[in-house]
From TrEMBL:
Residues annotated as signal peptide: none
Subcellular location: Plastid, Chloroplast
InterPro entries membership: Chloro_AB-bd_pln, Chloroa_b-bind
Annotated SUPFAM superfamilies: Chlorophyll a-b binding protein
Source species of the chain: Rhodosorus marinus
Binding site for chlorophyll a: S63, E75, H78, E167, R172, Q184
Any one Pfam family match given in the protein's UniProt record, by short name: Chloroa_b-bind
Biological processes per GO annotation: photosynthesis, light harvesting
A GO-annotated cellular component: chloroplast
GO molecular function: chlorophyll binding
Protein name: Chlorophyll a-b binding protein, chloroplastic
UniProt keyword list: Chlorophyll, Chloroplast, Chromophore, Photosynthesis, Plastid
Gene3D superfamilies: Chlorophyll a/b binding protein domain
Length: 203
């Protein structure tokens, strides 16, 4: 948490400032903007703030060689899956449907209770979604936008942009949170719900 807090404080400190550094070249002097999230590194050239949640975090400069629209669509897809997974980790320890396949309280152990027919259904469902949405990654559509808003929450452009920013922040938090849930259960042997009511030291 100290690390995360430090990054947040550093990000907020530099977010509102136009920080630049002079870099000498044989042809002259060029002003290079610094990353908001890592102030001692130059901001990658393709991370210019157009995408929601863009704070210039790319220490390996992968964005120089990757299609940003595709990368953002992938980030949103993995983030949405992890938001469901985080919820599933909690629900699995509290609510169970009738039947032997749904009685397991451990999310990890529950994987092995799924029959082969269930795995075929899961793989078929995921494949259908991938095939139906694959083209949108390359046709210029906004990344991750599948026109899914049954409650009409994004009523105007300003609200839509706000929700896009909120979603990517929650996606990133869920990806870290899901990994944390998994690591905790593997190390402690307790589910997330069990840990809340029966915390024990590792040593």
């Amino acid at each position: 948490m100290a690390f995360v807090s430090g990054v947040s404080l550093g990000t907020s400190r530099f977010a509102g400032q136009a920080v630049s550094v002079r870099r000498a070249r044989s042809s002259g002097t060029v002003m290079m903007a610094m990353s908001k999230s890592i102030p001692f590194l130059e901001c990658p050239k393709n991370l210019d703030g157009r995408l929601p949640g863009d704070v210039g975090f790319d220490p390996l400069y992968l964005s120089d060689n990757i299609n940003l629209q595709y990368a953002r669509a992938s980030e949103l897809k993995h983030g949405r899956i992890c938001m469901l997974a985080v919820l599933g980790f909690v629900v699995q320890g509290i609510i169970h449907l009738p039947g032997p396949y749904f009685s397991e309280t451990s999310p990890i152990a529950a994987i092995y209770k799924i029959p082969i027919e269930g795995w075929f259904q899961i793989i078929a469902f995921i494949s259908a979604i991938e095939l139906a949405t694959f083209k949108k990654n390359y046709d210029g559509s906004p990344p991750g936008d599948y026109n899914f808003d049954p409650l009409n929450l994004a009523k105007d452009t300003a609200t839509l942009e706000k929700y896009k920013e909120n979603e990517i922040v929650h996606c990133r938090a869920a990806m870290v949170g899901w990994f944390g849930f998994l690591a905790q259960q593997l190390v402690t042997g307790q589910s997330v719900v069990e840990q809340l009511g029966n915390m024990k030291p590792l040593m």
